[in-house]
Amino acid sequence: MNTISPSSQSRRPVAALCAVLCGLVALNAAEKKEPPLENYIDFSVGAASLDGDKPSFQKGQQLEKDGFGGIEALHYTKALNDTTTLTLDARALAGNNDYLFDLKITKDDLGFLKFGYKEFRVWYDGSGGYLPSRAFILPLYDEDLFTDRANLWLELGYTVEDRPQFNLRYDLFTREGTKDSTSWGDTGLAVSASATRGLLPTFLKLDEKRHQLSANVKQTKDNSTWSLAVRADKGDYENSRNIRRRANETGLDRKITAKEGQDYDLFQMRGSYENKIHDKLMVTTAVARTTIDTTLSGSRIYGADYDPVYDPAFANRQQRDEGFFDLHGESEMKQTVGTISARYEPKERLVIVPAFRFESIDWTNFVHFEETNVGSGASRPPTMEAVGADSEKDWKVISESLEARYAGIKNLSLSFKGEWTKSEGDLTELRVLEPGTSHAAISIDRDSEFERDTQKYAATANWYVRPGTTVAVQYYYKGRTNDYRAVRDNTVSSADRYPAYIANQDFETNDFNVRFSTKLGDKVRSVTRYDYQVTTINTQDIGLALAESAEMETHVFAQSLSWMPKDRWYVQATINVVWDTLRTPAATLTGAAGGLVKNSDANYTYGSLGAGYALDEDSDLYLDYTVSESRDSWVNNSDRTVAYGSEYTTQLASATWTRRLDRNISVSLKYAYAKNEDVPNGGYADYEAHLIYGKLQYRF
């Protein structure tokens, strides 16, 4: 017989009362639980102590050597009312010239308005070449070069559901500043006046501006989606390449300014339509029409200073100092592209995607300019000749592709894609000396026909060996044949026939890669990849047999490991090794040409090791080390020519400590050590730097 004692009966109300009280306490705590802090502002400052080449450091690390500071990040979100939200993201780092202002106002069931501006700086190193055999280098100007890129935008969007959605955006893009160029000027100081080397640094001046206005409308209804878009660009480029030849050599020192001007208008209309006919078939089609009208300008003038006015009596002019001025011309391109594709699923786990693409391009171009030159002899007589050039090109491309994916075999998925492209076109070229005068003479009158056939194949298999372990294998092939036929050519007997003497050129690429991903226990994750690629180029010049002109062979090995020995500790490591070689027949030449061209190797290794450790509930420590190294990619043949290739080691090690002081405030301190050693530059690009960085974050 079961009985209930009085004591147990008395405990039931007490227990119930305790449960109610605990529930009220929990509810009150939940009500008082502070909401997450979505807004924050980060203040940061950084500086470097540098020993070595400042431009090389800034280019390699993309940091201002003299320090930076300001607002690294600001994120602010506020509900203006029940349906309207304001979001602001901003950044302002003086020194790095890194600025951002991105404001967005969103109204539910209506749309959004965006306004913003972004600017950032890219550093370059303006040093020239180094000749190891003579330990020669010649700085000519401040090598601390940079360009500033900016983007201003205003965007309006209408995003009401079940209605056509509309978007209108304006962008202003600019790029301004200076950067380095490898079109180096020649010097006789390195070896001798009769054995010059191209080692003198060259810089580019950039002044580019582009306005872009785009609009699109899109609607999804039932099983179909359609969209229409229009884009208009207006660009204005005024760039120049500034070269110095035979610097500091009496009577030979001269400067070249090659100006390249473009003023273009682009207009594009495009549309697409997607229809899901039934559960197994979806069809997509798209078409685009683009026109680009360009006005060309430019000059190439020798003088005592950069950006000179042409002077036929310039004292330091030399034989064959070819140039031009007063270039003006126009170019027009019209492009039409149409595509149609389908996604067909005849049965479960089998997908077939056929596609067809058509493209037509027409170009018309003409330019007029005054060509200048300098003759031989003690008087070095200048010459000037008016030149007119016209060309027309049409190009048509038909492409077909078929892709299939099958996952009907347990733990295995297979895919295949093939693409076949046939292109053909025609190019007519006309170059006239002294056009419009009684002395007019045709120097080039050529009509060439082109045909290009391309085949691409890719087959991939993914094997899911067991949970956490996957093997992926892929083979890729690409073959392209180019045939050129000169229907009419008046330069057959000319020594300056390039590129009309090329009759055929064939490219072939084979690529095999494998990827192995697995878990080594519960705490280690490994991903291994190997890629092998070989490309051959065979060229046939008119009157000669088809022969191999180049071979490129590449091996890539990559390995990554993630290890979490404890819940509060993790380690990550990666390594990438690349062996790349370009071989050409020119490397086998002997005699006077021997040693001028070497096989081009690009062998490098990149590795990183990082570890994070939670010191306590509020403090974290992160350690990081990266190294990039190029070896066996440089052959010192400076006794014959300029030494090309690379051999360097760049290292960066850092330690970062983060501490959360309270719910609102956290601080970070970082120390980094950077070192670069560059052998081909004779140590002139070496640097060693200590960097200090601090950040204060306030969340609100």
Automatic annotation (TrEMBL):
Superkingdom of origin: Bacteria
Residues annotated as signal peptide: 1-29
Keyword list, A-Z: Signal
Protein name: MtrB/PioB family decaheme-associated outer membrane protein
